Amino acid sequence: MSTPPDPRPAIWKKLLTLEALSARLGESAPSFLGFRITEMGPDYLRGAMRLDHRHVQPWRVLHGGISVVVSETLGSVASYLAVPEGFHCVGIEINANHLAPVPEGQEITAECRPLHTGRSIQVWQTEIRRPDGRLACVSRLTCSVLPD
C-alpha cells in the first residue's frame, strides 16, 4: 500500500540536503554546541541536541540563551531556504518563552515552522521539547528578506 502524497506544499526555494546544511553550519556556534539539523519536511525543519555542561545554567538545567540559539538557528536556516536565489534573510527580532526545565544529560528536540513567509518579512516559530514530549520553550523569530 502506498503512502498518499503530503497535501502541504513544499515552501523551500533553495534545495539543500541535510548533509549540505550540516556542512554549512560548519565551525559556527550551533556546531560548537553540538546542535544538529535532523530533518527537513515540506514546511518544517527539525533539530536535536544532547545537553551537557555547555548548555546548562548553574542549576544544571537548559540555559534560556541556548534555547534562543537553537530557535534562531532553525529559523534562520529555514528563512534562507524559503527565499529564492538572489535573496537572503536577517533576523530582526526573537523572543522565547521558557515553559519547563530540561535537566543536563537529556536530549532536546526542536521543530521550526513558518507563521508567515512574505516577500519582505518572515516569521518562524520553534518549539523545543523535552524527551517526555513536554514543551520546554516556544520561540518566534522575525526575519527581514533582503536582496543579495
UniProtKB/TrEMBL annotation:
Keywords: Hydrolase. GO terms for molecular function: 1,4-dihydroxy-2-naphthoyl-CoA thioesterase activity. Pfam families: 4HBT. GO terms for cellular component: cytosol. CDD domains: PaaI_thioesterase. It comes from the Bacteria. NCBIfam families: unchar_dom_1. This is Hotdog fold thioesterase. The lineage of its organism: Bacteria, Pseudomonadati, Pseudomonadota, Alphaproteobacteria, Acetobacterales.
